[in-house]
Write a structure and sequence with these properties.
By secondary structure, the chain is of the alpha+beta class. Helices cover 33% and strands 18% of the residues. The model has no long low-confidence stretch (mean pLDDT 90).
Length: 321
């Protein structure tokens, strides 16, 4: 989030004191209609948290692509500055109701000791600002963020298997596991204490150091993985592709039911390798899973939907490695 705020200043409006939120609200109105909040419509507080995460992470991806290719003379920058240095633009990756790209448009910020750019508008195909973009950038406007080179990366290979699982990595993120599941499978730990970060650090150490608890959790997760793979073989759409910022590559998500069959509790992140085998890299909460999946496209899934994910705090600072 700080990288986006360092790039541009967003003006506040009325009683909305968060300038970026003002811009997000504008984008939600302009983009092809989509559910940008978790849970039911009654739980919507109008902040569009999914869209906010999407826009910030998309910008970060565009900037990283530009940095990776800065020595390539043929590279056309994704976050592009006009020849006179007065305007900037990037492709949001979203489209309007006639499926034309929407661009984020900025002008040079004249204030001292401030961000170099000031947000001006999100521009669709039928906006008057499109003529301004044409005058400043021509017909070749920036391309959207790029995440994969081969569509095969987006599909689980049923001929492959999971070669290894990073158990310590997964268990050190036990705060993402249902607390009822942990209580059922961990012995010699006081679950009555407040659920603080220190609580989960101690719990993770208890699990890793206690072979009985470790094996009980490991066996239950392995059972859930086996069941998820059966689902993938029945319906390939069960495995959902995501852009995983921690690895800066495409990974796949598998749904894991730990407490009750049919109710998905967490998502397992699979990393493909050159040998064809997968590495079970980490687990994500369903909210984190949806945010990362949405960077590529709106998930077409029977288990990862915005409606079935409980509304929680914004995830921009929740980064996995």
């Amino acid at each position: 989030l700080s990288e986006f705020y360092d790039f541009a200043f967003f003006q506040t409006k009325g009683n909305i004191k968060d300038g970026l939120q003002v811009a997000i609200n504008q984008l939600a109105q302009k983009a092809l209609p989509e559910k940008w909040h978790y849970g039911s419509d009654q739980e919507d507080n109008g902040t569009h948290p999914i869209l906010r995460n999407y826009l910030v992470q998309t910008f970060q991806r565009l900037r990283s692509e530009d940095i990776e290719n800065e020595t390539n003379p043929k590279w056309e920058s994704k976050v592009r500055v006009s020849n006179d240095g007065k305007e900037a633009v990037f492709n949001t990756g979203l489209v309007d109701i006639i499926y034309e790209p929407i661009y984020a448009y900025f002008e040079r910020n004249s204030r001292r000791n401030a961000q170099p750019w000031m947000f001006k508008a999100f521009v669709g195909s039928r906006d008057p600002f499109m003529q301004s973009l044409t005058r400043s950038f021509g017909a070749n406007l920036p391309a959207p963020a790029h995440y994969y080179n081969d569509t095969c990366e987006l599909v689980y290979d049923i001929k492959s298997s999971i070669g290894s699982t990073k158990w310590d990595h997964i268990l050190n993120r036990c705060d993402r596991l249902p607390i009822e599941f942990l209580e059922d499978n961990v012995t010699n730990f006081d679950f009555s204490k407040p659920k603080t970060p220190e609580f989960y650090r101690q719990l993770a150490k208890c699990i890793i150091d206690n072979p009985r608890s470790f094996n009980r959790i490991k066996n239950r997760i392995e059972d859930a993985i086996d069941y998820a793979i059966k689902r993938v073989r029945w319906n390939f759409k069960t495995a959902i592709p995501i852009y995983y910022p921690g690895q800066q590559k495409i990974s796949l998500l598998l749904p894991l039911s730990l407490l009750k069959e049919g109710k998905i509790d967490i998502a397992l992140v699979l990393e493909a390798t050159e040998t064809g085998a997968y590495i079970a890299h980490t687990i994500l909460s369903l909210q984190m899973a949806y945010v990362n999946a949405r960077l590529i496209t709106r998930p077409d899934s029977d288990w990862l939907t915005a409606e079935t994910i409980a509304a929680k705090a914004d995830l921009l600072d929740d980064v996995d490695d």
